[in-house]
Design goal:
With about 250 residues, the chain is mainly α. Among the domains are: about 35 residues, no CATH class; about 100 residues, Orthogonal Bundle (Cytochrome p450-Terp, domain 2). Helix content is about 50%, strand content about 5%. The protein is built from eleven helices and three strands, in the order E-E-E-H-H-H-H-H-H-H-H-H-H-H. Strands 1-2-3 form a three-stranded antiparallel sheet.
């Protein structure tokens, strides 16, 4: 049985990517335009390319503290190659760090015609967190504000972005506190309005964040000593106090 793909084919004569000759793409497409072509299968409009650029820039870096960076640096400090550090960093991306793009996009794409207050009430009744909303630092995520402003400028702000903002208002009304649309929710809404399937959502975080992971690994390599570990004052032991081993286990 042959494997099938509609993405690319490579032979001694030529390499085609989504039907375009690779050598024609080289030097003509920007990296973000190439990402758009790979993920969606078609070349972006000028505005879509600008929006893709903004999304990738917004998600590239957010400091040393997130799991994708700390897990990468710790794994690398143990003496692993940089590829293992990158893999460890990517494995640090999950439902609570970057992964909400996929979850939020699924909800938006499947419910954008629903009543936002009823949807929020359903999630609260089921005691589920609405992905893409709330942030540990921000009450208003400045990255979201900038991305939505650009989405309107580039005419890619549509029904999913509107529904996300309606959900934000409904959440605040229901909970009594501001649970802002975070970067994951903003990317989910904008990429949904750009026609991307929700199943590719995590990719919009993983692709740019790998740049950050590699940068942090280089810093770890050149500026830190090997073998990261927590200091004693960073650990609280909560187990039993010292105790004697029962006599029946004493075998020497």
């Amino acid at each position: 049985m042959k494997w099938k793909t509609s993405i690319a084919k490579s032979s001694p004569e030529e390499t085609l990517i989504r039907g375009y000759k690779l050598e024609e793409l080289i030097g003509n497409l920007s990296f973000s335009e190439m990402i758009f072509l790979e993920l969606k299968g078609e070349l972006p409009s000028e505005n879509e390319a600008k929006m893709m650029d903004a999304i990738l820039v917004a998600s590239t870096e957010h400091g040393i503290a997130p799991p994708s960076i700390t897990s990468a640096r710790i794994a690398f400090s143990g003496g692993n190659p940089i590829s293992a550090g990158v893999a460890a960093g990517v494995l640090g991306i999950g439902d609570h760090h970057g992964g909400a793009i996929e979850q939020c996009a699924k909800i938006l794409q499947e419910n954008h015609n629903a009543n936002p207050e009823e949807l929020v009430a359903r999630f609260r009744q089921e005691k589920k967190r609405l992905p893409g909303f709330g942030h540990k630092i921000y009450t208003t995520d400045p990255r979201t504000a900038e991305l939505f402003k650009l989405a309107k400028k580039y005419n890619v702000y549509g029904k999913n972005c509107r529904f996300a903002e309606q959900l934000e208002s409904a959440l605040e009304k229901s909970s009594g506190r501001k649970l802002c649309i975070n970067i994951d929710g903003a990317v989910a809404a904008i990429t949904s309005d750009m026609g991307f399937d929700w199943r590719i959502g995590k990719g919009f975080f993983i692709i740019p964040r790998v740049v950050s992971i590699i940068t942090h690994l280089h810093e770890e390599w050149t500026k830190e000593e090997p073998f990261r570990r927590l200091d004693e004052n960073e650990v609280n032991y909560e187990g039993p106090e010292k105790r004697d081993l029962p006599q029946r286990f004493r075998r020497k």
